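Supplementary notes for students who missed Thursday's class. We covered one full example, reproduced here. Read the sequence, then the structure, then the short commentary at the end.
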Amino acid sequence: MLLHVGCAQWTHPAWPQPSRDKLRAYASWCNAVESNTTFYATPSRGSVENWAAQTPPDFRFVVKLPQLITHERRLTNADGELRNFLHAIEPLGPRNHAVWIQLPAAFAPTDLGTLAAFLHQAPRDHQYAVEVRHRAFFDDQQAATNLERVLARVNAEWIPFDTGTLFAQRPTSFAERDAWMKKPRVTRRTRALTAHPIVRYIGRDSVTETVDGWAYLVALTIQWLTEGRSPTIFLHTPDNTEALNLARHFHTTVAAHFPTLTPLPDPTPTEPPTLF
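Structure (token representation):
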């Protein structure tokens, strides 16, 4: 049984990493990563080949579609751009866990027809996962049900971004204040649609508050594993300084309740910080 855990990036000034092959070093700590850089531009195929070369076969990327497709074209008239993107990430092979479609907050329930058409036409040799931020999808049960139906037709997952812990208390630092301004404030979602649920969780500067806040997610992850699902959990903090350690700690916490879980790799020795 597999639990993939990771962060929003594979490099950070505060993390123990070498000057080269940072992704290889990161992959010795975590077995998944959010590929956010692809949101800004389609990577070269050579770059993606390098990503694949630095990661083991069981490592997983969740690769975000470029903003040109999701935010500028709003999923319309982007067939060529989508083909180019999928061609570029092809070297990842099975490491490409899902194509991540992060939609803007203005993408409302009335736009579901556009999403349905896009997913229907998208190549079936890829898995897709959709993140919505319009509050109606979280506050209106009918809107949520309609979205789930659209996703179910193509076996796509709904990625929730859990900001409950972040917004549980007023911000106490610049990083937390910045996150309060930028992150969506939506209702927590705990329903998996596929065998491979994905959750993005953001805590706070305080490690204790972050860990206390994810208690529900540990229980949910154990439930999913018991059901035969293979979840992927991404751990964020406002500045992500402690995210690398937190991701491993989350995996260790779940493994204590689910001992048959495949362990994470042993980190490359680089004098890592020790929180736990």
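Commentary. The chain has one domain: 4-257. The chain has a mean pLDDT of 95. If anything here is unclear, bring it to office hours.
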